[in-house]
Amino acid sequence: MILGIDTDVLVNWAMAGAPHHRAARRLIETEVRERKSRLGITPQVLFEFVHVSTDPRRFENPLPMDRAIDLTRTIWDAEETVRLVPGPTVVHRALDLIAGLRLGRKRILDTVLAATLEGAGVRRLATLNERDFDGFAFLEIVPIH
Fold this sequence. Notes:
The chain has helices at residues 7-14, 21-34, 43-53, 65-77, 90-100, 108-119; strands spanning 2-5, 38-41, 81-83, 124-126, 140-142. By secondary structure, it is of the alpha/beta class. It has a five-stranded parallel beta sheet. The longest helix has 14 residues, at 21-34.
């Protein structure tokens, strides 16, 4: 089974000072060790991770860029990671979802993530922002506690 990972979960997993650090760590450990899940990661999520984790306005101790890049490579290359690269149908599917659900511009990247997961057959997504994925009936949201 594959669990899609949203950027917010990855950031909280990596950043010790993040508010949901322990919960993100616990979720990923439980999924990988106990449920034998693999983690579905998209390039989009990794690039957002680098952007957020190095931002001094968000964190008192942001990651230095070289550390964020090294960690991103490690995540992408990990045995537990399934690399989910958007296929040729993702653009049309995302646009159809945006139009059909009448979504605004702030939902574009989340819609692309949802369409990428759908195209890869991933039906579960771990996120702290459940409302960002409202309307995507093909996704089961895995909450972080």
